[in-house]
Design a protein that fits this description.
alpha+beta; FAD/NAD(P)-binding domain; D-Amino Acid Oxidase, Chain A, domain 2; 3 domains; ten-stranded mixed β-sheet; 13 helices; binds flavin-adenine dinucleotide
Length: 484
Amino acid sequence: MKRDIARLKTEDFDLLVIGGGINGCAIARDASLRGVKTALIEKDDFASGASGKTTKIIHGGIRYLEQFNLNLIYEALHERGILLRTTPRLVHPLEFIIPVYKGDPRPLIMMRTGVFIYDMLAGKSNIHCHRPLNKDELMLLERDITSKGLKGGVLYCDAQMDDIRLCLDNAISAYQAGCCVANKVEAEGFIKRDGRVVGAEAKDTLRGEKFAIRAQCVVNATGAWSNRLVWADEPHSPAITRPTKGIHIVYKKLPVTRAILFSARKDKRILFVIPWRDYTLIGTTDTDFKGSCDEVYATSDDVEYLLNEARRIFPDEQIDKKGIITTYAGLRPLMNTQGVAPWKVSREHFIKESGAGLISVVGGKYTTYRRLAEQVVDRVILSFPRKRESIKKCVTAAQGPSSAASAEGMRSLIERAVKEEMANSLTDLLARRLQLSNSRSLGLAELEESANIMAGLLGWSTAQKESEIRAYKEEARKNTACLD
Ligand SMILES: Cc1cc2nc3c(=O)[nH]c(=O)nc-3n(C[C@H](O)[C@H](O)[C@H](O)COP(=O)(O)OP(=O)(O)OC[C@H]3O[C@@H](n4cnc5c(N)ncnc54)[C@H](O)[C@@H]3O)c2cc1C
């Protein structure tokens, strides 16, 4: 992927997509594959927002059954089937167990019935049918969870994904289809002609240069940041998103082979303990967030809440802060609904168009990104009445994103990340291309060597290299500051 600022400055695009999370990357990919001349800009890095901070599950969402949101579950389960089929290297089946204990807010019958309906809704795209478990059967499958007060449970199947790589691969695939892609380019405002949005005022944050990008249609896919661009277009319009924070703990490997879904005692929310690589993920929280969307970290209260709830399920594991490798936090770009608890806000996505024609994406789940992208591009096409015949059909339900060529060894991996995957900071490399920031070393063991190789490839001065190292260490510190 070549970061082609000259092209961004000089060409007229059909479509400009702002935001390189999963939604923006997928919209850019879908549009480019259909022959729409597209540009994609991201102010930081692909998957640096919510799309790199998820629970990493592709799922219908068992908990939406309680809200009778059957349409969302049906759509998400259908999308789960498509992703398992088209992108098997990044999305694979994962078994979940729901143990139900005396005093749990959701009775066993409710959980079993719920999973039965879940399987029914999946229909042909079901992975395998659920299995009710009595107490002994459950303890045979997961012998290290507590049996105290256990009434029984149920086993069902969803999927686990590599959220960061899936997002990156969508960006790469968009580029391969002709999209002009650039990270470290921020949209600061809009260009308008006759009251219509016809491009964006942008800033290359690597060089500080400002320039205009011209496009017939502009999509705001900036997730939790969406309100800023909505207000740049229409200063007095209401907020479209209500960002809520979710954190995860990356914990040392707990003795579970399947994911465990259980109800929190404190607030009845559904929580997960999930085997992930050499570790266990414990998540997540869901709290309203009023701070800067660029500074989102776990607090010690967030961590205590999750540890307390997990401790109940694994009383023999002495779960405490000492077992935590690190934490990560992200913002859900939920639709702005007031008067309900954050975890009760709908996870459906919506497409909104302003009076000036700015199309904004609101809400949604990672799982349904492909469908969201298809719907947005269908909508975008309506703004090109003269071109409509030449635009091809959506192919993403049959064709998953491709990946960059494989590489082995630290130097080759770094060369690939820099030359083919647009890594231009040490954090891009270690946190997202190599995904080492959530490993035991936090990427710090690999820091010096990586910085030296990157400096050579990108022509960094010694001062620039030192500043990159400092920035990476600072991010690692902020993710673990809640453990002090
Ligand atoms: C804790 C947590 C756990 C979750 N777990 C799951 C899960 O397991 N499964 C699931 O299906 N869903 C999950 N979700 C939901 C899912 O992560 C989101 O719905 C999805 O990632 C949103 O993607 P996005 O592209 O809209 O937003 P983001 O990924 O946040 O992308 C927006 C991007 O826009 C960029 N940007 C902002 N302003 C500008 C600008 N002015 N110019 C250029 N770029 C800009 C940002 O830098 C950012 O990269 C989870 C969410 C959270 C927070």
